TrEMBL record:
<keyword id="KW-0813">Transport</keyword>
<keyword id="KW-1133">Transmembrane helix</keyword>
<feature type="transmembrane region" description="Helical">
    <location>
        <begin position="291"/>
        <end position="313"/>
    </location>
</feature>
<dbReference type="InterPro" id="IPR010934">
    <property type="entry name" value="NADH_DH_su5_C"/>
</dbReference>
<feature type="transmembrane region" description="Helical">
    <location>
        <begin position="334"/>
        <end position="352"/>
    </location>
</feature>
<dbReference type="InterPro" id="IPR001750">
    <property type="entry name" value="ND/Mrp_TM"/>
</dbReference>
<keyword id="KW-0472">Membrane</keyword>
<feature type="transmembrane region" description="Helical">
    <location>
        <begin position="549"/>
        <end position="567"/>
    </location>
</feature>
<feature type="transmembrane region" description="Helical">
    <location>
        <begin position="372"/>
        <end position="394"/>
    </location>
</feature>
<keyword id="KW-1278">Translocase</keyword>
<feature type="transmembrane region" description="Helical">
    <location>
        <begin position="241"/>
        <end position="260"/>
    </location>
</feature>
<dbReference type="Pfam" id="PF00361">
    <property type="entry name" value="Proton_antipo_M"/>
</dbReference>
<feature type="transmembrane region" description="Helical">
    <location>
        <begin position="83"/>
        <end position="100"/>
    </location>
</feature>
<keyword id="KW-0249">Electron transport</keyword>
<feature type="transmembrane region" description="Helical">
    <location>
        <begin position="415"/>
        <end position="437"/>
    </location>
</feature>
<comment type="function">
    <text>Core subunit of the mitochondrial membrane respiratory chain NADH dehydrogenase (Complex I) that is believed to belong to the minimal assembly required for catalysis. Complex I functions in the transfer of electrons from NADH to the respiratory chain. The immediate electron acceptor for the enzyme is believed to be ubiquinone.</text>
</comment>
<dbReference type="Pfam" id="PF00662">
    <property type="entry name" value="Proton_antipo_N"/>
</dbReference>
Length: 568
C-alpha cells in the first residue's frame, strides 16, 4: 500500500509542477465553478482555483508526502495497524488539497477541519497518556481558530457568496471585510501556532515521526500562512502591525526556547515555530510572495530534517534525548550528512535552498522603514536559529559518544535512506530554481556594507555561541544562566504550556470540585434524592396502601363507591 500511494503522489507532483510552470509562464488563472444551490440569495458554489501558486504548493506537498509515505514503509515496520496509519496520512494530504485548491470559505472549512480532526487521530496514534494530553491540547487550541472561521462564514453571508477571492480588492476598507480579516488572522494564528497558541506545536511531537515530518513541513502548520497569503490583499495596516508584532515575538521566543531544549524532535518543532514566525512577519511587511517562497524552501529541508531525526531515533532504540547521542557521524554517516545539510539550509548558509529565501527576506526587511525593535529582533532570531542548529549538531553528531555501551547502531534501513535521498537534491538545488521561477527578473538589492554583511555576521556569532553553549553544563556559574528558575522559564516557552493547560482549566476544575462538595455531596444530598424520599415517606405515610391486605382493598372499594355517589 505504501509503494502504491507513494508512486501515485510522485506522479501527481510532477504533473502539477509542470502545470504550475506553464500557468506561471502564460500568466493563467483557471476558476472551475460547480453550482450547488441558492438559498436566501446566497449561492452555495464549490470553486476550484487553479493558478501557479496553488499548483506549485500542491506539487511540493505531494512530493514530500510521496517521500514520507515511502519512508513510513520501514519506519512503521513493526506496527500491526500500518495500513490504517498510511490511510490516515493520505486523508491528511487530501484535506490539505481541499484547503489549497479552494477560494471559498465553506470548502476551505472542509479541508481546515479535516486537517484538525485527522491530526488529532495521528497525534494520539501511540495511545498513551502523553499522546492523549498532546492530542487534546492540539485539538482544543485549533478549535479556537475553527470558531473564528465559522464566525467569518456567517459574516460573509452579507456579501451573498463565500468566495472571498472576488471581494479582496474593492472591499479593502469595508468594516465587515475588516472584521472577517481579523477573524482570519485569529484562525491563522491558531493553526500556525503563533503566540499565545504556541504550546500545541511541540506537544504534537507525540505523533509518529513521519507524521511530524509531514505536519511541520508542508501541511497543518503552513495552512494558516497559506490562508493569510491568499487574504493578504485586504489586510489593513492595523492588522499588519499586529501580525508583525505577534509573529516577531513568536520567532524570538521559539529560537530562545530551542537553545534550552534537550528533546531532539522538540528542538526541530521549535525551529518550525521560529520559521513560521519569520514567514508571517515578512507577510506583515507586505511581501506575501516572499513569504510563499520561504514556505516552499522551508518545507523541503524541514521534512528531511525530521526524517533524519526519525532515522536516528529508530537506530538508537527510541531514545530522543540529545544528551544520549554524540559521535553518530561514525555509525550513521549518510544520515548525519543529510542532517547537517538541512541544518545549514535552515541557518541560511549561502547557496543552499534556505539561503535564497532567508537572505532575501532579511535584505527586504532592511530596506523597509521600521523601528529598531523589528530590525534587532529579526537579526537576533537569525543568530538564535544558527545557535540551536549548531548546538544540535554538536550534541548529536560531533560530541563524545554517550549512548549505551551495549549497542548496535548501523545504517541498515535502506528504504528510509531512499526516501531521504529523494529530498536531499531538492534541499540543495530547488532554492535557486524557485527563485528563477517566482522572480523572472533578477533581484538586485543595494545596501551599505555593514547592513549587507549583517546576516553573515549574525550567522557567525550564532555559530560560535551555539558551539560554546553546548560545552558548558547547567552546573557552571556562567552569567545569569545559573538561575534555574530563569532557565526553566526559557526552556518552557515562557511558561506557555502551563498557561494553555493549567491556566485555562485549573480554576474551572477547582470550582467544579467545590460545587461537588457543597452541593452534590452536601446540601443537595441532604435535601434531595434519598433524604427527600425518606422525609416524604414519613410525612405522607401512604405506604400502607401497598400492603397486600383484604381489608385495605375493601376500604379502597368503599371510598371509590362514595366518590361515585357524590359525583352523581
Amino acid at each position: 500500500m505504501c509503494y502504491i500511494f507513494s508512486f501515485m503522489f510522485l506522479i501527481l507532483s510532477l504533473i502539477m509542477f509542470i502545470l504550475s510552470f506553464s500557468f506561471l509562464m502564460n500568466d493563467m488563472v483557471n476558476l472551475i465553478e460547480i453550482w450547488g444551490l441558492t438559498l436566501n440569495s446566497t449561492n452555495f458554489v464549490y470553486i476550484v482555483l487553479l493558478d501557479w501558486m496553488s499548483l506549485l504548493f500542491m506539487s511540493v506537498v505531494m512530493f514530500i508526502s510521496s517521500m514520507v509515505i515511502f519512508y513510513s514503509e520501514e519506519y512503521m515496520v513493526g506496527d500491526l495497524t500500518k495500513n490504517r496509519f498510511i490511510l490516515m496520512v493520505v486523508m491528511f494530504v487530501f484535506s490539505m488539497m481541499f484547503m489549497i485548491l479552494s477560494p471559498n470559505l465553506i470548502s476551505i472549512l472542509l479541508g481546515w477541519d479535516g486537517l484538525g480532526l485527522v491530526s488529532y487521530c495521528l497525534v494520539i496514534y501511540y495511545q498513551n497518556v502523553k499522546s492523549y494530553n498532546a492530542g487534546m491540547l492540539t485539538a482544543l487550541s485549533n478549535r479556537v481558530g475553527d470558531v473564528a472561521f465559522l464566525m467569518a462564514i456567517s459574516w460573509m453571508m452579507n456579501f451573498g457568496s463565500w468566495s472571498f477571492i472576488y471581494y479582496l480588492d474593492f472591499l479593502y476598507n469595508n468594516e465587515i471585510m475588516m472584521l472577517i480579516s481579523s477573524l482570519m488572522i485569529l484562525a491563522a494564528m491558531t493553526k500556525s501556532a503563533q503566540m499565545p497558541f504556541s504550546s500545541w506545536l511541540p506537544a504534537a511531537m507525540a505523533a509518529p515521526t513521519p507524521v511530524s515530518s509531514l505536519v511541520h513541513s508542508s501541511t497543518l502548520v503552513t495552512a494558516g500562512v497559506y490562508l493569510l497569503i491568499r487574504f493578504s490583499n485586504c489586510l489593513s495596516s492595523i492588522h499588519l502591525h499586529f501580525l508583525l508584532f505577534i509573529s516577531s515575538l513568536t520567532m524570538f521566543m521559539s529560537g530562545l526556547g530551542a537553545n534550552f531544549e534537550f528533546d531532539l524532535k522538540k528542538i526541530i518543532a521549535l525551529s518550525t515555530l521560529s520559521q513560521l514566525g519569520l514567514m508571517l512577519s515578512i507577510l506583515a511587511l507586505g511581501e506575501s510572495k516572499l513569504a510563499f517562497f520561504h514556505l516552499l524552501t522551508h518545507a523541503l529541508f524541514k521534512a528531511l530534517l525530521f526524517m533524519c531525526a526519525g532515522n536516528i531515533i529508530h537506530s538508537l532504540g527510541n531514545f530522543q534525548d540529545i544528551r544520549f547521542m554524540g559521535g553518530l557521524i561514525n555509525q550513521l554517516p549518510l544520515t548525519c550528512i543529510y542532517m547537517n545539510i538541512c541544518n545549514w539550509a535552515l541557518c541560511g548558509i549561502p547557496f543552499l535552498s534556505g539561503f535564497y529565501s532567508k537572505d532575501l527576506i532579511l535584505e527586504v526587511m532592511s530596506m523597509s522603514v521600521l523601528n529598531i525593535y523589528i530590525y534587532l529582533i529579526f537579526y537576533i532570531s537569525i543568530g538564535l536559529t544558527v545557535s540551536y542548529s549548531f548546538r544540535l549538531s554538536y550534541y548529536s553528531l560531533i560530541g563524545s559518544f554517550n549512548f549505551l555501551s551495549m549497542n548496535m547502531i548501523k545504517e541498515s534501513s535502506l528504504t528510509m535512506l531512499k526516501g531521504m535521498s529523494g529530498l536531499i537534491f531538492l534541499v540543495i538545488f530547488m532554492g535557486s530554481c524557485f527563485n528563477w521561477m517566482l522572480y523572472s527578473t533578477p533581484i538586485f538589492i543595494i545596501l551599505p556594507f555593514y547592513m549587507k554583511f549583517m546576516t553573515l555576521l549574525m550567522v557567525l556569532i550564532g555559530m560560535i555561541w551555539g558551539l560554546e553553549f553546548s560545552k558548558f553544563s547547567l552546573t557552571y556559574k556562567i552569567l545569569f544562566f545559573y538561575n534555574l528558575t530563569f532557565l526553566s522559564f526559557l526552556g518552557l516557552m515562557w511558561n506557555m504550556p502551563m498557561i494553555s493547560t493549567l491556566g485555562m482549566n485549573l480554576n474551572f476544575l477547582k470550582m467544579g470540585k467545590t460545587y461537588m462538595k457543597i452541593f452534590d455531596q452536601g446540601w443537595i444530598e441532604y435535601y434531595g434524592s434519598k433524604s427527600l424520599f425518606s422525609v416524604l415517606k414519613k410525612m405522607l405515610n401512604i405506604q400502607i396502601i401497598s400492603m397486600n391486605h383484604l381489608k385495605i382493598f375493601m376500604m379502597l372499594l368503599f371510598i371509590w363507591f362514595m366518590f361515585l355517589l357524590l359525583l352523581i
